[in-house]
Amino acid sequence: MSIRKFRIAGQEKLVLTEQQEYALEPESALIHDYYVDPIGQQQGYSRLLLKQIVNDALFIYGAKQVYTTVVADDPLRETIEATGFTCQPSSRINTN
Is residue 88 part of a domain? Predict the structure, then answer.
């Protein structure tokens, strides 16, 4: 099963939980909480799902930029970058 979630930021700070805040430009989308089971990952569905989520954010919801997060050593990072994302320093705001 795949879960698709993203949020469109209408302000500079997007709060997902008490511990997760991200500084985003207005009209930006942050993709989070998506999952493809291991069999689907082997068949390339991670990349297809991510492309569809990006297209939805851009063309249905009008996002101007799309972001996602990934831990640097996560194998999914390669898929994310192959989809067209570029690695940038974290824009996470420390809430502590």
Answer: no
Domain residues for the domain of 21 are 6-82
Nearest to 25, CA basis, from 88, 96, 70:
88
Mean pLDDT of the chain: 75
Cβ atoms of residues 47 and 57 within 8 Å? no
Q: β-strand 65-68 against 28-31: which pairing, if any? A: parallel
What is the C-alpha to C-alpha distance for residues 42 and 39, in angstroms, rounded to an integer? Answer: 5
Q: What is the pTM of this model?
A: 0.70
- Please state the domain count of the chain: 1
Highest mean pLDDT: which range of 21-30, 72-81, 84-93? 72-81
